[in-house]
Amino acid sequence: MEQKIVIKNLKDVPILSISLQSTLWNKTGTWRYLRPDYISLKAPCSQACPIEQDIPFYLTSLADGNLAAAWQKLLEANPFPSTCGRVCHHPCEEKCNRKEYDEALAINALERFLGDWGLEEGKREPQPEKRKERIAIIGSGPAGLSCAYFLARKGYGVKVYEALNDPGGMLRYGIPEYRLPRKILNKEIERITSLGVEIQTGKRFGIDFGLEDLQTYQAIFLAPGAQDEQKPKIIGGDLKGVKHGLTFLKKIHSKNRPYLGKKVIVIGGGNTAIDSARVSWRLGSKVTVVYRRAKEDLPAIPGEVEEAVREGVEFIFQAAPLKIQGKKGKVQAVEFQKTKPGKPDKSGRRTPIVIKGSTFSLPADSVILAVGERTDLTFLPAEMNTQNGMIAADPWGRTNLPGIFAGGDAATGQGYVSQAIASGKRSALTIERYLRREDTGSRVNGLEVAGFERINLDYFTKKRRVAFPALPVNNRKKKFKEVHGGIGKLKALREAGRCFSCGNCVRCNVCLMVCPDVAIAFQEKENGYLIDYDHCKGCGICAVECPRSAMILKEEKWNE
Amino acid sequence: MERVISGNEAVAYGAMLARVQVIPAYPISPQTTIVEALSDFCASGQLKADFVKVESEHSAMACCIGAASAGARTFTATSAQGLALMHEVLHWAAGSRLPIVMANVNRAMSAPWTMWCDQGDSLSQRDTGWMQFYCEDNQEVLDSIIMAYRLAEKVLLPCMVCLDGFILSHTYEQVDIPNLEEVDQYLPSYIPQFKLDIEDPRSFNAAFLPDIYMEQRIKMQGAMEEAKMVAKEMDQEFGKTFGRSYGLMEEYQAEDADILLVTSGTITGTARVVVDDYRQQGEKVGLLKMKMFRPFPTEEVRRVLQRVRKVAVVDRNISLGSTGIFAQEIRSSLHHHGEGTSVFGFIAGLGGRDVTPAVLKEIVEYAKGKEAPEGDLAWMGAKP
Question: Structure pTM?
Fold first, then answer.
C-alpha cells in the first residue's frame, strides 16, 4: 500500500483538494464507534406461515425470473405448493407489510404459480443418499405425507399406511374438486413417492395391522387425522335425507353424486359445512347454511364463505337446530331456535345460548350436519396418553412412548392443511434427531420480525396487487370445475417484484451506492456484501437507508 | 450580426456563443428572461446543452459545481435573494477552482420587498473567491460573458458578470452578435486539468487540515493576481478579433482632470454625458469606469488616481455601518500612495432610484465646493 504523502513546499500543494494517490493508507475505520453489518430478520409473512416457509427467500428468485431456483427453495420448505397455493388459508397475506402500504402481496397465488410450474415442467428433486433406518407412518393426509417427504429427502426409508383406497386423507376426501383438482393432488403425491416413499392403501391401523407388525421400523409417526364425524343427537336425526358433512363429501369423491332435493339445509360453520353447501349447490339444490354463532365467528376460510355467498348460498346466523321434522320417514323441515352470545368458553369464544320462544322452521328436502370431526382413538395402544380427545403430543410430535411420534389433526387439533403439513415437517425433524440420538427438545427460531416500521418506504412505489381470475358463477356447476384460476409468468414475476423482502438482503445495492467511503465491496456474502472495516467510519447511512432492514448498526467494542 | 436585444438576451447569446454545456438555473426577476431565452435555445437545438431545472438557487450552484467538476462548461444566472441563497456554495465553487460563469442581474436586497437595481447583491459576495465584472451596456454584457469563460478557464476561478437590473436587463439596445466561428477561435473547448473520471478516480474536496489549508488560499490569491494580467491580455486579444475592448477599467477624459468621477455599471453611461457637458464649459472633469471589481486592479487604479486632486466615487451600494464599497476599495488602494488625493464617497441610486445627470452634477458640484470630504459618505438624490 502507498504511504502517506507529506507536502513540505508551497509548490507541491495542489490548487484544490484532490487526492494524488490512493488514500487506503488512511485507516478511517479506526474512527468508528458504530459497526454496520448484514442481518437476516424474519419477514412477518414467514412468521405467520405455519410451515415456516422463508417466503422472501423464494420470491426473490422468482422476481429475478429464476424459476428453477425459486421452485427449489419452495420445495425445500413445502411438499405441497400447488395444493397450498389453492387451499391454504394464507395467514401470510394477513401479516404482509405491504398491506400497510398498498395491498398485501398475493403470496398464495405465487405459491400456486411456482408449484404448478414445477408440475408442468415435471421437476423432480434429486434422489438423496439412502440411509438404513426405516420409519412407518400411519395416515397419508397432509401431515403424514409431509413427514414422509422430509424424512425421504434425508434418505430414510419411509412406508405410509393408508386406511382408504387412495392416499391424501382430507386433501382427497374432504376438499371438493372445484377447490383442489385431483390431477394436481395426484401429481404432488406422486412427486413424494418418487423420492422412494412407499404408500400402502386399504390398510387400517388397529384393524388390519397393529404396532406389533411394525417392529422392523425404527420410528413410527401417527397421523390418522380427524375422520370421525361428530354426530349430534337430535330429534329426527335418523330420518331419510339427513346426512353428515364429511361422509357426504367422501361420496362425492367416489363420483356418486346424488341430487339432494330442492332445498338443502347445512348445519355448521366450519370448512366442511361450507364445502358441503357449495357441493349441494353444484348438485342443483337451493342451499341455506345455519350457524349457531355470528358471521364473524365462522371458522371457515373467509374466501370460501365469500364464494359461497356469490354462488347464492344463503346464511342464517345465530340459530341452533331443535329438531328435524319428517313425514313418512323423510325430512320435511328443520326447527331452529334463535341464539345469543353467552359466556366465553376456554378458547375465549362466547358459547351461544338459545332464546326461549324464538322457534322458527325452515322447509328442507335434505339436511347436512357438519358440526366437526374428531379423532378415533380406539386404535391406539393402551399405554399411549391422550388429551382432549386427541393423542397427547408436544409441538415436536413427541408422545409418551419413545420412538412413536404423532401429528396432524389427531394430535394438534388444528384444522388447516398448512398446519397439518407443518406438524408433519416438525415431526420429521424430531424423528431424524431421535434416530441420530440427538436432543429432540424444543427448537426456537429466535429471529426478530421485521415489522412495517422497519421498511424504508422511500425505496418503493405503490403498485396494485395482481388480480387472478375466477370462474363465472354460472359456469361453476359443470364437472365441479376449479373456481379460481392461476396467474401467468409475467404477472407472477411482477407480483413477486412487489415483495419488500422484509429483513432479507436482496442485493439491491443501496448500501453499496450510499456508502460515502466506498467501504462496501461488490463481493457477495451469504447475505449482503463485504464491508471494508479498515475504512468504514460507521456513519450508518447504509443501515439507515437499507430499504428492508437487512442491516444493523451495533456499538463497536474496540476493547473486546 | 447587428440586432436590437435586451441585456438579458445579450447574456443568453453570450452563453450560447460560448457553447456552454450545462445550464442549471432557477428563475428570479429580473433575471428570468435569461433563463427563458436559454431554455428556448436548448429546445430549438440552437444550443446543445443540458438545461437542468432545479428547485432553488442553492441547488442551481450545487449542480453547476457537479457539472463543472465533471469537466463541462457550465453557466447559470441569478439575482439578489437568489444569489444570497447561493452564498454557501459560491465558496465551494471557488475553493474547488471551477471555472463556472454566472450572470448576476443586479437587484437591491430585501427586506423591504424590492426588485429594482442596486449592487447590494453581488457586492455582498465579494469575498467568496469569485471574480466580478460590472457592465455598462448590452454589448459589453455579451462580450464579457465570452471573455469571462476564457479568463476563468485559464486561472481556474469562477466569474460573475453583473448587469444592472431593468436598466440593462430589460432595455433593448443595438448589439453586434459575433459569429460563432470567430468565438470558437477566441474561446476553444474547455479541457479541464482535473475532473471526475471513473478511469482516473480521485477524491475531490476532502478535508485540508491546518497544515495545508492556508497554502491553498495562497494559491487562490495567486490566481486572483494572475487574473488581472490574464484579463488584460484577453481583453486585448478580444479587441483584435472583434474590434471591441474594455480594459480592467476605462479612463474617460481623465488625463488632466481636476475632479474624477468613479463609476460602475450603467451610471457610467450617464457620467459620460455629464463629463462632456463640463468639458464643453471648459471644466476639467473626468471619469474612471470600473469594470473589474474582483480581483481589484489596485495598481492600475492607484496610477490613475495618484495624479488627481479630487476623486468622487459614486456607489450604487452601501456596506451598512461603513461606506460605499467601491469607495472603500479606492481609499484603500491609495493608502500610503496618494496623500494629495481627496476621495469623496457618494451613495446614490439605491433600490432602483434613478441616477440622473442632475444627480451626478450635484456630486461634481459638491466636490468642487469642498477642499476635502466632510465625512466618509454623502447621500445623493435622497429626500432632505
Answer: 0.71
